[in-house]
Amino acid sequence: MGGLAAAGAFTWFGMVVAISFLETPLKFRAPGITVSLGLGIGRLVFRALNIAESVLAITLLVALAVGHSDGRAWIPAVIATACLAIQMGALRPRLDRRAAAVIAGVEIARSRIHLGYVALELVKVVTLLTAGALSLA
Q1: Cα separation of 12 and 121, whole Å?
Q2: Which stretches does DSSP call E strand in 34-136?
């Protein structure tokens, strides 16, 4: 099951890097993309990403549990899962409300919520690489 755990961790890692650190910043540079349109697309993409991440988190944790892992991969796997839970339960709903307001044309002050989300993405990337490597060891 170490192979399945590694596959789950590395697939999850790849999705986060591809969406959060590649697609999202580039989307706003595309010709004709307004902030409202970019936010609308982002809301859909991150909802889908979080669902896929949830499936991968469960896959990773179950593979570690069934695989009788020596336990080293558990800590980074649990940290990555906790980051996702915080993002989905506390940060993304607030970001969704802000995006909906901007899309509706409401002027709102800048917020640091997005920075918290990005910080958790960085923690996830590091912990998922670690969990994947340790599950193969």
Answers
A1: 11
A2: none
